[in-house]
Design a protein that fits this description.
22% strand; alpha+beta; Helicase, Ruva Protein, domain 3; single chain; N-terminal domain of MutM-like DNA repair proteins; 28% helix; globular; 289 residues; 2 domains; 6-stranded antiparallel beta sheet
């Protein structure tokens, strides 16, 4: 089994997009949901002839490519007038744009996350509301029905609180030195209150979807500003969301976590996440030969 042109196209998109903030989006197609400017791009997936781009809030853009369809990567200053005229989707970063041409279908949807689905129960307080009741968020965290759930999962559960996207989740856990796999039941009221207060402050002080001066998010393989350790990236939880963290200093409640799970899902230090995904897919393709 060989890699298809769509798989190679997705591999190039991963290198260009993963961990970067979107500054521009346009499409000629009629879509239900539009990605928000300032959001970070977390994943690029491929299934058959479909390429799927996922942002940090779980919004996914799926493009099903015709035989000659493709995504093109254009650096700033490139002359891409012909492609832009036929572009169905344009995603702009600070230094480049990616342009989709020749897709038979373009659609957006929310990537499935069982902890964010409204059918599971009433949604929690919205941290972007200046009058939000933080104690209610703390109480919901302390009463969480699954005592073995990790704090990283709970922070994205809409039934506990709303407004914490994946970027803020990673940054909050780092700021509080919390191990992402710490069980929520191991946290005290004061620790839960610290998390919720920091989250509300960060969301209200800055434009909600504009990430600046990040400590861990998007910094895989770089040095931690607090301890000089290496920032890691892994996938976490039932929804398999990207998670950046520092294993050297995020050690609070580490004893309640599963270190085996952590190391098995880490992208190796010094390896770009896109390269890690590519090599994993290549190994899987060779097994299926």
């Amino acid at each position: 089994m060989r890699f298809t042109s769509v798989q190679h196209n997705a591999s190039a998109l991963r290198i260009a997009l993963i961990g970067h903030q979107m500054v521009h989006f346009e499409t000629t197609e009629s879509i239900v949901l539009s990605p928000q400017i300032g959001r970070m791009i977390e994943e690029v997936r491929v299934e058959a002839r479909s390429i799927e781009i996922i942002w940090d809030d779980g919004l996914a853009l799926t493009t099903t490519m015709r035989r000659k369809g493709s995504w093109h990567i254009c650096r700033a200053g490139d002359n891409q007038i012909k492609r832009k005229k036929s572009a169905q989707v344009v995603i702009g970063l600070s230094d480049l744009s990616v342009i989709c041409c020749g897709a038979s279908e373009v659609e957006t949807h929310h990537d499935f996350d069982p902890h964010r689905h409204p059918i599971l129960g009433r949604q929690g307080p919205d941290l972007s509301d200046a009058d939000v009741n933080l104690d209610e968020c703390v109480d919901r965290m302390l009463r969480y029905e699954d005592a073995d759930a990790t704090i990283a999962e709970v922070l994205l559960d809409q039934r506990v609180l709303r407004g914490v996207g994946n970027v803020y989740r990673c940054e909050l856990l780092w700021a509080c030195e919390l191990h992402p796999w710490a069980k929520v039941s191991s946290l005290s009221r004061d620790e839960c209150r610290e998390l919720v207060s920091l989250a509300a402050g960060a969301i209200l002080e800055k434009p909600q979807h504009v990430a600046t001066e990040l400590a861990v998010y998007g910094r895989h393989g770089k040095t931690c500003a607090r301890c000089n350790g290496l920032i890691r990236v892994t996938h976490h939880g039932e929804a398999n969301r990207v998670l950046y963290w520092c294993a050297d200093c995020q050690v609070r409640h580490a004893g309640t976590s599963s270190s085996r799970y952590v190391t098995e899902h880490d992208t190796p230090p010094g390896v770009h996440p896109a390269e890690h995904i590519y090599l994993s897919e290549l190994a899987q393709a060779r097994k299926s030969v």
